[in-house]
Structures are given as C-alpha cells and as structure tokens.
Amino acid sequence: MIELAAPPPPDPLYALPAWFDLLAMAMNGFFGAAVARSRRVPIYGTLLAGILVGLGGGMTRDVLLGLEPVAISAWYYIPGVIVASIIGALTFHKVVGWDLGFLIAQGVTLGFLVTIGAQKALSYEAPVISVIFLGVITASAGGMVADMMTGHAATVASQAHWVASALVVGTTVFWALTVYVNFWLAVGVCVLIVTGLRVLS
C-alpha cells in the first residue's frame, strides 16, 4: 500500500491568529445568507447557503493541502458561521440595500479570505502557483456553490474581469510582499487591493 507523505509542519513566520480565520469565515457566511435571503430563498436554504459560503472555501483549501478541515477539527467555526448566517438572514434588507457599504464590506471579507488561503498554503511550503490558486479558491469556492444552489451565475464568473482579477492580483501581491518584504504589510495591502477592485466592479 502506498502512503501519501504527510504535509510539512506550518512555518511559524506566516501565521494568522485563529480569530482572524473565524472572523473571515463568519463575515462570508453573513453575506452569503444575506444575499440568499434577498433572492427569496427559504430560511433553511438561506442558512445552508450561509454555511456553504462561510466554510466552503476554507474546507476546500484544507482538503487540497491534504489536511483535516479546520472547520471540522475546531468546534467554534460551525457555530460562529451559523450565528453570522442567522444575523445576515435577519438583516438582509439593510445589508444588500446598502450598495457602496455592501461592496466595501464584501471586498474586505474577500481580502481576508484570500490572505487566509494563501497564508496557509505558504506556511505548508506550497509552490507559488498553488499559493495563488488556493488564495482564489478560498475566497470563491463557497460563493460559487451557493450561487449555483440559488440558480444564479457565480459572481466570479459573471464578473470575471473584475472579481476574479481582484482575487488573483490580491493573492499575487500578498505572496510577493510576504516573501520579500513583510507578512503583515502583505495582509493589509492585499485587503486594500481586493476591496478597491471589488468596489470598482
């Protein structure tokens, strides 16, 4: 029987605190549920969409890295995303109707997700192309599933010239600044880039 080699231990130089990871996933679940509810999805489907959007990207990232999904191994991710999804479902009329604020907040969330995806890939010494791929996937996988579930074209595809470019550019800049300059500077610049391009979309 052939055994797969275990992934290397994470590099402590590229570490984000657990609360940052949880905040990014909860915010994404919040927006996922708000958008689903605005599309008149029933409440069960709304909560499911919020959970998929919140946890889907991170779980996909971990599976591709050969790791146990952190959303399963740590008890607080699922309850945190569920609570955020409920709040998003209850306040959707204010969230979705606040056009510029919605885009800015969603852009910040996508920037956070890009950083947690790329950071984890970097910490496990993945090659640069994999770092960029996992940053994009972490930010978009859950949303794509929820869009398909509600019968809509995925945002990353329907607005590909802006949204997909924002994720790719943000992840690439994050990788370059992390490797050659400073990790925390990379986090801030990545979030600003993704947010700016998302607003322009």
Question: What does this molecule look like?
Answer:
This protein is 77% helix and 0% strand. The protein has 201 residues and is mainly alpha-helical. The longest helix has 25 residues, at 99-123. The mean pLDDT is 84.
Low-confidence stretches: none
Structural class: mainly alpha
Would you count the extended β strands for me?
A: 0
Beta content: under 5%
Mean pLDDT: 84
| Biggest sheet overview | none
Q: Spell out the helices and strands N to C.
A: HHHHHHHHHH
Name the overall outline: globular
What are the defining features of this structure?
77% helix
Question: Which helices and strands appear, and what pairs or packs with what?
Answer:
Layout (H helix, E strand, L loop, with lengths): L17 H21 L4 H22 L5 H4 L3 H14 L1 H6 L1 H25 L4 H22 L5 H4 L4 H18 L2 H18 L1
Helix pairs in contact: 1-2, 1-4, 1-6, 2-4, 2-7, 6-7, 6-9, 6-10, 7-9, 9-10
What is the compact description of this entry?
By secondary structure, this protein is mainly alpha-helical. 77% of the residues lie in helices and 0% in strands.
